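quick one before i forget lol
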Amino acid sequence: MPELARRSGRRQPIRVLWRAVAEREYAATAAAGARFVEWCEPDYRESLASIADPPPVVAVKGHGHLLVARTLAIVGARNASANRIRFTRKISQDLGEQGLVIASGLARRIDTAAHEGALATGTVTVMAGGIDVCYPGETKPSTTVSWRAAC
């Protein structure tokens, strides 16, 4: 299969997992209160599926219906000023009230302010490191409503 993937133009080699490894990953994800959504399922975000090399599965925890809602990502500096933090919180709240779900990471300052502003209307946390990796370490689970994880 790796040779076939190379001939098709795939840049990254396919990594075949042992069944036991996959079963452990599914069990750990379920134990964390999450589930996997595969690219072929209706809950898989269409815009994510349209990127060049989309992940075949994503872990989802919390309100999965937010995955398919209209979303705006807000990211910013971890060392933002108090004014920028207040502005981010306010604009996230206003955008949420207009029907947008706010997506951000878990970094302190701007990311946290984006989630805080949108908690009442819908917020999505994107964690590239996995559902069991809370980065940065000072992020608290109560800070966000998360589709990927609450550390």
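fyi Residues 35-143 form a domain with the Rossmann fold fold (CATH 3.40.50.450).
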